[in-house]
Amino acid sequence: MTADPGTQADGAARMEPTRDVGATLPDLLDVMLDKGVYLDLDLIISVADVPLIGVSLRAAVAGIETMLEHGLMRSWDEQTRQWARRSVGRHVPLGDGEEIVLRMAGGHLQAEPYRSWRPGIVYLTSRRLIVWRADPREILWQTPLEDLVAVELRPEAVVDGPDRLRVCVVVPSGRVWLSAAAPQRLHDALRETVGAREEARDGDR
């Protein structure tokens, strides 16, 4: 694990220790991802009572979000974001400073010239909602985030299986239907965007 110089000790010190002898493995994983675990371990490996290997381990283990909250791994996070921007930018046309917030397989329901689902990749960026197809390279559908009026999650009846959840996006021109690998996650992310815009408008009044 890597951390920014000068921040690892401070971040680890702020992770307060807890003790629970009845904790199970799922409990440990929950704590590790949510609050973090700091390991302070000295280990000696012996063979036939002869010490051969010594291990001195000091490590903080936590979910990435928790690490960043405690000031750890910020350089790694920024490098990863820069790499993701460059990688996505080679395929999806992004504007200067436009960030990818969410990416998943999905599609767009085309109404004309005939009604059909067009598969692609759904990108939620800091500025737009895009459905992109890589081959051939084209934007199947997009809208600026400021044009989002409402977002709904609705079931679609399927003849040969259970209903599928679809994301319905309301824009000034009408309703647009999107499919997504994780429809609830996309819906929640878009709802946060719409809610933030509504709060900003209310604050300006």
Description:
The chain has 205 residues and is α+β, with helices and mostly antiparallel strands. Helices cover 29% and strands 39% of the residues. It is built from 5 helices and 9 strands, in the order ααββααβββββββα. It is elongated. It starts with 7 loop residues before the first helix and ends with a helix. The relative contact order is 0.10.
Q: Tell me the number of strands.
A: 9
Shape: elongated
Q: List the strand order in the largest sheet.
A: 6-5-4-3-9-8-7
Indicate the mean pLDDT: 78
Low-confidence region ranges: 1-9
What portion of residues is helical? 25-40%
Distance between the termini: 48 Å
Percent of residues in β-strands:
35-45%
How many whole angstroms does the radius of gyration measure?
Answer: 24 Å
The description of the largest β-sheet is: 7 strands, antiparallel
Q: How does the helix and strand content classify structurally?
A: alpha+beta
Order of helices and strands: HHEEHHEEEEEEEH
Put simply, the count of helices is: 5
